[in-house]
Amino acid sequence: MAVARCFVNFSPKLKQALAWNLQQRIAESHRLTCCLSHKKHYSSATKSSFDEVYRRSINKPEDFWAEAAQNLVWDKKWKKVLDNSNPPFTRWFVGGELNTCYNAVDRHVEVGNGGQYAIIYDSPVTKHVQKITYRELLKEVSRFAGVLQKLGVKKGDRVLIYMPMIPQAIVAMLATARLGAIHSLVFGGFAARELAVRIEHAKPKVIVSANCGVEPGRIVSYKPMLDGALSQISFRPKACVIYNRPGFEIAPLKRGLDYDYNLEMSDSKMTDCVPVSATDPVYILYTSGTTGQPKAVVRPSGGHAVVLKWSMWNIYGMKPQEVWWAASDLGWVVGHSYICYGPLLNGNTTVLFEGKPVGTPDPGVYFRILKEHNVAGMFLAPTALRAINRDDPEAYYGKKYMPLPIFRAMFVAGEHCDVETMHWAKKAFGCPVLDNWWQTETGWPITSTCVGLGMSLHPTPGVTGKPVPGWNVMVVKQGDKTKEADDVELGDIVVKLPLPPGAFSTLWDNDHRFKHTYFSKIEGYYDTMDSGYRDKDGYIAVMSRTDDVINVAGHRLSTGALEEAITECAEIAEAAVVGVPDSIKGEIPLGLCVRKTGVKLSDEEVVQMVIKHVREAIGPVASFKLAVLVPKLPKTRSGKIARNTIAAMAAGKPFKIPVTIEDESVYPAIKLALQKIGYAKDPQ
Ligand code: COA
Ligand code: AMP
């Protein structure tokens, strides 16, 4: 009775949180019972449940997502689950209000889970491990929200975060979301100019950065990069908050602009969550398109929180309180969704790893993390597996950590995973290795093996799973986009509208580009710009991009942006960039450059200058180390560079010269130049 009376006095928000917690515990005990009886981990689902759940998500999307949304705490319930009256500007949970930070942090503390670890920060590059409970995280986040608020950040303002893989980066993300502001993270491997372009476009009120990042063998000085970026543009943020990592050179602060993170935190007050509309952005994130123009996807708060929470069990089979590790960077979409928000919304412990698959200190480090931190599920890019395989094919360094009794499954994404790598990883780590396909735009997987929904843990090798509930995927013929491709026929992959919750709702400051870039190929469909096929069992394989985007070590790069950087060199008249196969990174960029007449430098000097300039302009992330000089580029009569023919020639694959090529006599000279650097080999 006393308990009941006490419950009556609780706020509606706390009641929702408690009800959710109770539901989780009931579901948990059900799963545990199933686990015991089936001696399997993902056994609360039956084989038929995936098909049934998928059908319901497509036929009754409103009921389906409204049910999933009940697993969050809302400040105000939505009036309408789906408003699709103005496609492609789909709006989910219209009228609803919530705070993402509350759902990711406060809620767990309020229901009594404050003592659980929220973050395990493992940094082999600094030889440091730190475990942070939800209670500690709440304190840090709400105080940093106070810092941002004092600097003038309000609901809807942008906060740009340019930081290495340290807990303070997650704190800055959550604190921004706490105030209902919008964060924009920039990956540390970008150079000052790329940072400048993003700052100018996002117009952040505050920038949060650090003195440095630590890459194997070198310190990456973030603060000079930030200063350099600001010196290139006229836009000024109101303030820059700089976190000085202990043990490294302290970044000098500029009076009137820069603020010291620790100093500001020392007298900051705990600051409460600001509810936002479900359709308000929680973040924007820049990604590569076909040109160098900045393009930032807008992630709506409500749909984002609903689907990420939903995906942790249904796709990845993660129960609350288990340890999850996404070995990516917070600056990429994977880092947003599955290092920060997904696991925290689900009440998991998330591993924040500052290191590399090899060399920090050896190829056993991934095995160590899995064992030492009792990781149950992980996410990584195939490049990381290829790097471990290259350095330690027998997984000798990992053996001392085997077996991994808690570890259940490894999920790969970000780039095509070759079957050989997948087989190797299965054997080395002793678990299923499951591919899933998604994009910055989608924010969560379009296709996957949904282990929580009972899908087979042994899909046909080479596929990326089946369309995930919510994603109505079609593969259309490349010649006739009105028709579906036949089984196993290569086609363009599109998704029928409406896109599910959590997908991007527009491009920041550019509704027009959003509509015309992604939705004009076939009316009523989202163009993924990926090609692939569907097999007879409904599995999807994703093969390559249909636009001028290449994928280097799971990093998406615009060939257009690289070409722009090359032609900035005074010696170069024009350039074409294509992706060529690489045994570790999947693909690497290759630049074909036409030198200007009258340039006095030797060919080798020009090539080295181009490589140096691209690294300075775009950043090390481009991995731009291959360039050749050619007399002319192959162009169509309308002036378009025939990149696909260059890429095929470089890879030693057969190709047809399009009839529209203006001058086909350019090809022999290109072939010769490529052969000199070991490409364009004749087929054996
Ligand atoms: N700050 C500064 N420089 C960075 C950086 C950072 N945060 N991250 C990478 N770099 C640098 C590297 O040091 C390297 O420099 P180098 O040319 O001097 O050697 C260069 O950028 C290329 O890095 P990368 O290709 O990423 O190789 P890596 O050895 O640093 O990392 C992986 C290998 C596999 C860990 C990394 O490529 C990775 O995590 N890829 C997956 C990304 C992902 O999750 N994609 C999913 C889609 S969002
Ligand atoms: P990004 O937006 O940086 O995450 O890159 C998205 C692109 O990476 C997709 O459009 C695909 O081309 C590629 N990609 C992501 N996941 C996969 C996968 N599992 N298989 C093949 N390609 C993938």
TrEMBL record:
Report the residue ranges that make up the AMP-dependent synthetase/ligase domain in this protein: 118-497
Q: What is the E.C. number?
A: 6.2.1.1, 6.2.1.17
Q: Which reaction does it catalyse?
A: propanoate + ATP + CoA = propanoyl-CoA + AMP + diphosphate; butanoate + ATP + CoA = butanoyl-CoA + AMP + diphosphate; acetate + ATP + CoA = acetyl-CoA + AMP + diphosphate
What is one cellular component GO term in this UniProt entry? Answer: mitochondrial matrix
Q: Which GO terms describe its molecular function?
A: acetate-CoA ligase activity; propionate-CoA ligase activity
* Residue ranges annotated for the Acetyl-coenzyme A synthetase N-terminal domain, each copy included: 51-104
> Which protein family is named in the record?
Belongs to the ATP-dependent AMP-binding enzyme family.
Protein name as it appears in the record: Acyl-CoA synthetase short-chain family member 3, mitochondrial
Q: Species name for this entry?
A: Potamilus streckersoni
